[in-house]
Design goal:
With 279 residues, the chain is mainly alpha-helical. The protein has two domains: 124 residues, no CATH class; 147 residues, no CATH class. The protein contains eleven helices and three strands. It has a three-stranded antiparallel beta sheet, with helices on one face. A hairpin with a 2-residue loop joins strand 1 and strand 2. Helix 8 runs parallel beside helix 11 and helix 10 packs antiparallel against helix 11. The longest helix has 34 residues. The protein is globular.
Length: 279
């Protein structure tokens, strides 16, 4: 890469950091304080690793600035200022990624961007889903998870339980199937993993699509397990088991379970592809 381009890139990156300095602390706070968004902390790291792995395949000497990047940058900054002035938190956070993409296209060109497209677009997963959207979608899923969990506990395991709305009542305990147990939060994390595994996978779009689409039922099934197991524990050990450390631990354990399932599916799809290709 020519020295002038390096210096110009550093200058643009510093301006980018200064511009978004009011947004980064709040975003970091959401990653650290809210376990439902903690996967966002990993996203920039994963993106940087993917870009680093791509460095040897990029012809840095053949750079060509593109005005398309200037257009993307302009539109992105308009939405940034609208969101920042209007207190719409999700808009400035989304434009972190779109502004970065605009800078890459403008400074390095479309050819370089095409090589880095996935790692850059992958950064959108670091932006937390707005609470309004989560609440809109989560309540119906809470009810479905509550009904199925009540059926498993009462009809299949013969444990007395009474369901009312998103509440499960046992003989000596009660359990609320909260928004965190709806599956919508973990779906974003599973989608992140699904797209990452699909990107790393060789083979057809069909196989990659199977991997990504499998995250939807996986997120619901994993959280259904969480509700059911927590309900069983609440029946035997009381409501305290559904709160505090055990509740947080169950969330981490279920996410780890989903990660293992996705990895196994990735391994099976890769193995069948290699078997058909004779590798």
């Amino acid at each position: 890469m020519p020295p002038k381009t390096i210096l110009f890139s550093i200058l643009l990156f510093l301006l980018f950091i200064i511009l978004y300095s009011p947004i980064f602390p709040g975003l970091y706070h959401l990653w650290i304080e809210d376990s439902n968004n903690s996967h966002g902390l990993l996203v920039p790291i994963i993106s940087l690793v993917l870009i680093w792995k791509k460095r040897g395949k990029i012809n840095w000497e053949n750079l060509k600035s593109s005005n398309i990047g200037l257009f993307v940058l302009g539109v992105s900054l308009v939405f940034y200022f609208i969101g920042y002035a209007g207190g719409i938190g999700v808009l400035p956070r989304l434009t972190i990624v779109s502004t970065l993409i605009g800078l890459v296209i403008f400074n390095l060109g479309l050819n370089i961007f095409s090589r880095l497209a996935f790692p850059l677009l992958f950064l959108f997963f670091m932006v937390p889903v707005p609470v309004s959207i989560v609440l809109l979608v989560s309540f119906p899923l809470q009810l479905i998870a509550t009904k199925i969990s009540a059926f498993i506990i009462s009809d299949l395991l013969s444990i007395p339980v009474f369901m009312e709305g998103n509440m499960l009542y046992f003989a000596n305990a009660s359990l609320e199937v909260a928004e965190a147990c709806s599956g919508i939060r973990s779906l974003v994390a599973y989608l992140m993993l699904g797209f990452l595994f699909a990107y790393l996978m060789n083979g057809s779009i069909k196989r990659r699509s199977i991997l990504v689409l499998s995250t939807v039922p996986l997120a619901f099934f994993a959280n259904l397990m969480r509700v059911t197991v927590t309900g069983i524990l609440a029946h035997f050990f009381g409501s305290k088991v559904a709160r505090g450390f055990l509740h947080e631990f169950s969330g981490m354990a279920i996410f780890a379970f989903g990660f293992i399932i996705l990895f196994v599916l990735y391994y099976v799809l890769e193995s069948t592809r290699k078997a058909k290709a004779g590798e």
